[in-house]
Write a structure and sequence with these properties.
mainly alpha, Four Helix Bundle (Hemerythrin (Met), subunit A), about 75% helix, globular
């Protein structure tokens, strides 16, 4: 089989988990196409959970590969940079400041992911990881759509997270900040479900 499909030599648990995360992203797009922001955000939550799980299992099962690192980055770009464009255009608006903010955010995400693959630091993230940036952007969009926050707040968060992703801040992998972020993500998910 691998003779005809050579990429299958990299078929392992973490890469399957990463691919499942992408499938959740595609399902999120389906819900966005039908105007269901709540269901789309729930799918993005599960996609983010897969992103956390793939790294965990790659380490535990000693299945870290360069291939897996690139697959993870490609899925992260799709989930954390492309899908927010759709969410903003569908639920917030399309003014020039939002477009500029989205462009800056996506460029920050692109450069952050490329830089992550180049430096491959085992202990620290340099710059805010893109899933963390996605959380802040999505939470802000939710506040704009459901609680009437002004659109400029969304624009500001897009620029801020874009800058943080390419900044020199160092965050310990699996440190206190990441655990705190997951508490916020779960709290936000509960808010999304009950609102």
């Amino acid at each position: 089989m691998k003779k005809y499909f050579p990429a299958l030599q990299y078929l392992n648990v973490p890469n399957v988990i990463t691919s499942v995360g992408m499938v959740f992203g595609i399902i999120a797009c389906y819900f966005l196409a039908h105007g269901d922001l709540r269901a789309a955000l729930i799918c993005l939550f599960f996609s983010g959970f897969m992103d956390l799980a793939d790294g965990f299992f790659a380490g535990k099962l000693n299945q870290k590969t360069v291939f897996g690192q690139y697959v993870d980055s490609l899925v992260d770009f799709f989930i954390c940079c492309i899908i927010p464009i759709w969410i903003v255009f569908a639920f917030v608006g399309t003014n020039i400041l939002l477009i500029a903010g989205l462009a800056f955010y996506c460029m920050g995400g692109l450069w952050r992911l490329a830089y992550f693959n180049v430096i491959a630091d085992k202990e620290y993230f340099t710059g805010l990881p893109v899933p963390g940036a996605l959380f802040f952007v999505v939470a802000t969009i939710w506040m704009v759509v459901f609680y009437g926050f002004p659109i400029w707040v969304c624009v500001a968060i897009l620029f801020l997270t874009g800058a943080l992703m390419i900044s020199c801040i160092r965050l310990a992998k699996y440190g206190f900040w990441q655990k705190s972020l997951w508490v916020l993500v779960v709290a936000f998910l509960v808010l999304v479900i009950v609102t």
